Amino acid sequence: MAAETQTELTTVYQVTGMTCGHCEGAVSGEISAIPGVSSVTAVAKTGEVTVVSAGPLDREAVAAAVDEAGYELV
């Protein structure tokens, strides 16, 4: 049996409203709960949220997670 190789996908999203480390943690925590997500790095200063996942994510799922954290996906 051949082993499957899985390529991770990195996507950068723009989020408005983050101002501090707590904001970064809230957004990261919600997006991390999406199935397939392996890591999330949020940077309040730039509004960029870098998501590493097993495959493409549904933009609506990401938007809903960001909204749940109290912020808005651009």
UniProtKB/TrEMBL annotation:
<dbReference type="InterPro" id="IPR006121">
    <property type="entry name" value="HMA_dom"/>
</dbReference>
<dbReference type="InterPro" id="IPR036163">
    <property type="entry name" value="HMA_dom_sf"/>
</dbReference>
<protein>
    <submittedName>
        <fullName>Heavy-metal-associated domain-containing protein</fullName>
    </submittedName>
</protein>
<dbReference type="Pfam" id="PF00403">
    <property type="entry name" value="HMA"/>
</dbReference>
<feature type="domain" description="HMA">
    <location>
        <begin position="9"/>
        <end position="74"/>
    </location>
</feature>
